[in-house]
Amino acid sequence: MSNIGILSLGHYLPHYRLTNAQLEKMVETSDEWIMTRTGIKERRVALTGEKTSNMAIAAAKEALHNAPLTGADIDLIVVATTTGDSAFPSVACLVQKAIHAKHAAAFDVAAACSGFLYALTTAKQFLMTGAAKRALIIGADKFTNILDWNDRSTCVLFGDGAAAAVLGSVRQPRGILSDYLLGLGDYAEYLCVVAAEREQFEQKNLLIRSPYVVMQGQELFKVAVNSMALAVETAAKKAGVDVKDIQCVVPHQANDRIISAVAKKMGIPKDLFFINIEKYGNMSAASIGVALYEAVEQKRIKRGDLIALVVFGAGLVAGANIVRW
Ligand code: ACO
To answer: Residue-wise over 230-266: b if at least 16 C-beta within 10 A, else e?
Structure first.
């Protein structure tokens, strides 16, 4: 008997490192403030010409290599991103072209920092119905493109990157045992991308302004903790497993203090949570995939382990999957 599971992983991180020390020269902040409030030491920044699609393609190629498979073996590509190169073509179609996945369906999903699990859960449904046999999912974001670099309350938090996974049939008891996705649209205003151009247009004063992120950090913090804990508990219940049996939790990496609060709320020791936020900050849709990649690489997750993946992001949206690795 088989389940749908993760066959391989890939990732991509831009080479340029932006440290807290450098940020101290850009806005009124300090390494001490950023470290104690968030746990972030540095983040990667994709430079001009290094687009979301380039990062997605690099992560996809590594995941295919690790499977090992080629683009011809893939019949579904789902890319989670809110910072695609442009409104269209989709990043998924650019990936399709680059990996020569000629027979694949390809589309993007927008669920901000939760996107990787939205892509995973969407692709899983296609695989379960037989509509696709092997899927490539990717979380890729160039979040630094939509930051206001004068706003110290947001610009210190985010970085860029991409992660990919190939999904297909695995032998039981391995596989993605449960999914739980939740929309929390009532809190939409807590984290938004805004742009002033529409108002400017109506005033017949066509000033071009790039969209940028605005955030109500403290409100977001509370909803993040509650919804991430709820998501893991609900997904565990759906999988028929006890939360206490989870051997590793891979959470979205938004803030080390959020992860501590989730661990405390759930009564799970914090050392069972995989954390790499110090090196990368919050890479939006890429964060959890890169964390999963590193957790496997560092043998924090081994074949047969029961793990929880849990995300939270703008929308607001949350989600979790229980996986037997
Ligand atoms: N450096 C120095 N001081 C700062 C900085 C900074 N970078 N940013 C804010 N401050 C100041 C504030 O101005 C404020 O000063 P004041 O007291 O004089 O007014 C003080 O620090 C405290 O600010 P708070 O906002 O209360 O700080 P808090 O402890 O809440 O931490 C933080 C802020 C880190 C943003 C926290 O609220 C948080 O992590 N929230 C969740 C954010 C999150 O998860 N975002 C991603 C969601 S996922 C997605 O989809 C993208």
So the answer is: bbbbbbbeebebebeebebbbbbbbbbebbebbbeeb
Give residue-wise pLDDT tens across range 100-119.
Answer: 999 999 999 999 999 999 99
pLDDT in tens, 211-241: 889 999 999 999 999 999 999 999 999 999 9
Q: Has this prediction a pTM greater than 0.85?
A: yes
pLDDT for residue 206: 52
Query: Whose C-alpha lies nearest to ligand 1, atom 3?
Result: 29
Instruction: Tell me the pLDDT band of 270, cut-offs 50, 70 and 90.
Output: very high
Instruction: Give Cα 121 to chain centroid, integer Å.
Output: 13
Any ligand 1 atom below 6 A from CB of 112: yes
Judge if the beta carbon of residue 282 lies within 6 A of ligand 1.
Answer: yes
Task: Count how many residues are written for the chain.
Answer: 325
315 C-alpha to center of ligand 1: Å? 19
Helix (H, G, I), strand (E, B) or coil at 111: coil
Please tell me the distance between residue 228's alpha carbon and the centre of ligand 1 in angstroms: 19
pLDDT at 25: 95
CB 288 within 8 A of CB 232: no
Name the residue of 29, 143, 144, 153 to mutate for ligand 1: max ligand atoms within 8 A of Cβ.
153
Task: Report pLDDT for 195.
Answer: 77
Residue 167 three-state SS = strand
Give the mutation target among 150, 213, 221 for probing the ligand 1 site: most ligand atoms within 8 A of CB.
Answer: 221
Q: Tokens 């049939």 label which residue?
A: 169
Answer yes or no: are the C-beta atoms of 138 and 77 closer than 8 Å: yes
